[in-house]
Amino acid sequence: MKAGFDLSSHQGTVNWRKIESGFAMIRAGWSWYLGGMNIDQRFVENAAGAQAAGIPWGSYLYAYDQTPEAAVISAGRLADLLDNYRLPYPVAYDFEDGQYLAMGRERNTAICRAFLSTLQKRGYYVMLYTYTNFAKGYLQMEELAEYDLWVADYTGKVGWPGEYGIWQYTAAGSLAGITGPVDLDRAYKDYPSIIQRAGLNGYGKRPGPEEELLALRAENAVLRGKLEAVREIVGDGTGAGASAAGKEADNVSRNLDFPPLSK
């Protein structure tokens, strides 16, 4: 178990040289209703401070997205920001805003899944942040079971019956180097080892054009298989069925040209 904390611009200027902690979760910003994000005013400063102090850190985005489509956009913007860093701890989607209490479990879950899956495809170890009662009443958590949970519960124990990776156990903590109250957390996984071994969060090659091209080539192989099947049907090219199949073969063959992989 590692003891840590999370913070945002609400904590003001942080004296990172005074902080003694196992990890930090730094707010990157907050998303927009229709997708996109604002960057936390102190994100860059806090990220640099944590790195200079040798404190392993992760990040989180506070969610306002109102649709899965918006969440996809927000995840992309966050990835663009974090691509400049290596993060030993996960990247979390902070899903707790009051608007979601009226949206229904299915819609809330779809928004979370869209964000988390999009960010995961960008090469990040992702997790969901929320509090116990929200997880129980406003999400279909079984649909999100593949993602780690960072759960907030200030009752002295975790009321969520399922698995979780980080527990935020108080919002009234104190740390040397930070003025005023701060959230305190406990991590129950060795995230730095897991993330670095997996080559995620900047520790490996990030998905890019070459990976996209490989995916296209896989689709290409499928199309070629279809083309060969159609050609077998066509045979000598006679008959109405053969004519229709020939048109399909032409349509398939137009999709088979891809540029070579970059060196």
Largest beta-sheet characterization: 8 strands, mixed, barrel
Helices and strands, in N-to-C order? EEEHEHEHEHEEEHHH
Q: How much of the residues is beta strand, in percent?
A: 15-25%
Kindly report the spatial arrangement of strands forming the biggest sheet. Answer: 1-2-4-5-6-7-8-9
Mean pLDDT: 87
Weakly predicted, low-confidence segments: 236-263
| Rg (CA only) | 23 Å
Share of helical residues: 25-40%
- Rounded to the nearest angstrom, the distance between the terminal CA atoms is 43 Å
- How many beta-strand runs? 9
Shape category = globular
Structural class: alpha/beta
- Helix tally equals 7
Q: What does the model show?
A:
- There is one protein chain.
- With about 260 residues, the chain is an alpha/beta fold.
- The protein has seven helices and nine strands.
- It has an eight-stranded mixed barrel, surrounded by four helices.
- The longest helix is centred in the C-terminal third of the chain and has 26 residues, at about 210-235.
- The relative contact order is 0.13.
Summed up:
The chain contains seven helices and nine strands, in the order E-E-E-H-E-H-E-H-E-H-E-E-E-H-H-H. With 263 residues, it is an alpha/beta fold. The radius of gyration is 23 Å and the shape is globular.
SSE arrangement:
Blueprint: E1 2-7, E2 23-31, E3 37-39, H1 43-53, E4 57-62, H2 68-82, E5 91-94, H3 105-121, E6 126-131, H4 132-138, E7 148-152, E8 166-173, E9 182-187, H5 191-198, H6 209-234, H7 240-253
Helix pairs in contact: 2-3, 6-7
Characteristic key phrases:
263 residues, alpha/beta, 8-stranded mixed beta barrel, globular
